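re: ur question from earlier - yeah i can do the single chain one, its not a big deal. heres the input i used so u can compare w yours
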Amino acid sequence: MSITLTDQDKLTLQTAAWGAVSLMSAAGAAGSAHKVATEGSIALTSATGLVGHVLAKAPKGVKWGKTVADLADQVLPALTVAMSLLKQQAPAEADNFRNTIIVALDAAARTHLGEPSPTLADMARKITEAVDAA
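and the output i got, formated as tokens:
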């Protein structure tokens, strides 16, 4: 069975995933934001299946906002919508998307020695809750 996503569906998935990495980067400690973004991006571009094809590139033309709150207002709902969309159209890909997001969060958090900072851990929690809200 072949799954066809509309351009808007693909943009929603890209916005959700790449936005999650951006949120983690914004929550990273000073000097580590680049490492967080790099590790999270590698996780997204390493995805396989339909999700891997969609997330191979960051979304173009998305206005991310000027603050972390603006970014969260856009990305957290997009994560929930993306999961709902995939659960309806391709349940196996919903699991793939969720796992890809969790791997990206784990990869981003590993850039710190020891445990992630409280800010980074809290952002990962918010992202995971948005993914699981669907």
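Residues 14 and 59 are 6 Å apart (CA to CA). not sure if urs matches, ping me
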